[in-house]
Design goal:
The chain has 13 helices and 23 strands. The protein has 441 residues and is an alpha/beta fold. A hairpin with a 2-residue loop joins strand 10 and strand 11 (250-251). 46% of the residues are buried. It folds into two domains: 11-306, ANL, N-terminal domain (Rossmann fold, 3-Layer(aba) Sandwich); 314-440, 2-Layer Sandwich (GMP Synthetase, Chain A, domain 3). Helix 4 (107-121) crosses helix 5 (136-147). The strands form six sheets. A seven-stranded mixed sheet has the order 6-5-7-8-9-10-11, sandwiched between helices.
Length: 441
């Protein structure tokens, strides 16, 4: 291990722009492709590259010429160690902990992930870039494209969801008779695409696969997409695993899964080398095999993995442990529910209570029509809907798992990556309870 500011003076940190604009993606793809050429040469000849370049994709604004030097200096200040095998440094989203980490990955790990993805999907192909390339899911679309010896198709989403841009990109990929065509989205983008309907959905259905990850995807959303003929593949993974490593609940080739005390652990060639902004090592090593200790709870039967959400998110209400993901899955299947997040609220009697924030413009409109100024407990429509939700969860999971707080809103707060912002949702629900705008049992 060497410090970037000390012994590793030969290493050059290359800041490249993220996002999805054509200019930024093209620049980052050029840098990724150069690493791919050097890696390919190493695989064939064993010849190591003479100059060590470490790729550091950042938000486009941070990579602009006027700020690149400042960004470089700030990044180097955060780096505490730099294993010699690190080729790419990515920052995690920090959406669940609020504390982004710098992940050091070898190009070999990223290529292993790309090749395993193609094997699982039925072969290499062109990838549509609709996710920011400074995050692992977006960057992997470029790496997979390199491995497939193809060129990326860019769908610029920098100004938000763009139906026309995505339609054109999907049509371009589907019309390429020489290559398979793939797309990677977050659940919010898939939802927006289905809401747009029309030609966009028709073109999505022509693609060989549409990966959806980055957050829990509701069963209702998946059912809608598959009913429209879209080959949706759910993914689970993180920056630390080079992106998605479990597809449709099944590990990618070469990836191993186990659970220890209910927490998911992952092994395989896709793992990061480590965090470069600290000296903590989130690995268990057994017989030379590294197992990444994740913060996620799950159930593994030897063949399929069920992710239950972050272990720290488990709600302890009375003496009952409630998995928010399971409750959310049940609620998401209810009529007129477009999205849902289940969080914990502190409670003097129970310690914590289960609270459900439900996005449903349809139900929200009916509640407002029945009396927008009424406290939630006096609104008959609100009370009837809340009882239906509690009964639904109680029947499937048991009454102890049924939410005691239900907030119906038009939409949930999300991060720039389209993940539900649990911190913001929790604060919103607490405020709604305080103002009697959420139903409380």
């Amino acid at each position: 291990m060497t410090s970037m500011n000390a012994a590793d003076s030969a290493a050059q940190l290359l800041i490249v722009p993220g996002g999805t604009t054509p200019g930024a993606v093209t620049m980052t793809y050029s840098a990724v492709h150069k690493l791919w050429e050097l890696y390919e040469r190493f695989e064939k000849t064993g010849v190591q590259r003479q100059q060590r370049i470490i790729l550091a994709p950042r938000e486009a604004s941070e990579a602009m010429p006027a700020r690149a030097a400042q960004t470089n200096a700030a990044l180097q200040k955060r780096i505490k160690q730099l294993p010699g095998s690190v080729d790419v440094i990515l920052e995690t989203s920090g959406s669940t902990t609020g504390n982004p980490r710098l992940v050091g990955l070898s190009f070999g790990a990223l290529v292993a992930s790309a090749r395993a993805t193609h094997e699982a999907l039925g072969g290499p192909g062109r990838w549509i870039v609709a996710l920011p390339v400074h995050h692992v899911a977006g960057l992997q679309t470029l790496i997979r494209t390199c491995v497939a010896e193809a060129s990326p198709i860019i769908a610029d989403m920098s100004a938000g969801f763009d139906e026309e841009a995505l339609t054109v990109a999907c049509r371009t990929g589907a019309d390429d008779g020489d290559n398979r065509a793939y797309l990677s989205l977050v659940p919010k983008q898939l939802h927006d695409a289905l809401e747009a309907g029309g030609e966009l959905v028709e073109q999505l259905a022509r693609l060989d696969a549409v990966l959806v990850g980055g957050a829990g995807t509701s069963s209702n959303l998946l059912d809608r997409a598959r009913a429209a003929g879209i080959n949706v593949v759910t993914t689970y993974g993180m920056s630390e695993t080079g992106g998605g490593c479990v597809y449709n609940d099944t590990p990618l080739p070469g990836v191993q899964i186990r659970t220890v005390d209910g927490r998911i652990q992952i092994a395989g060639p896709v793992l990061m080398d480590g965090y470069v902004d600290g000296f903590d090592r989130p690995f268990d090593v057994e017989d030379g095999q590294r197992w990444l200790r994740t913060s996620d709870a799950g159930e593994w039967d030897g063949h399929r993995l069920q992710v239950l959400g972050r272990a720290d998110d488990v709600i302890v209400s009375g003496a009952v442990n409630v998995a928010p993901t399971r409750v959310a899955d049940v609620i998401a299947a209810a009529k007129d529910v477009s999205d849902v997040a289940v969080v914990a609220l502190p409670d003097e009697k129970w310690g914590q209570v289960v609270a459900a924030a439900i996005a449903s413009p349809c139900i929200r409109a009916k509640i407002d029509e029945a009396g927008a100024d009424l406290p939630a407990h006096e609104n008959e429509v609100y009370a009837k809907f809340a009882k239906q939700i509690r009964d639904l969860v109680g029947e499937q999971l048991g009454r102890d798992h049924a939410p005691r707080v239900i907030a119906v809103v038009n939409e949930l707060a999300v991060t720039p990556l389209g993940k539900v912002d649990r911190h913001a949702v929790g604060a919103m629900v607490a405020n709604l309870v305080a103002s009697e705008a959420a139903w409380v049992r």
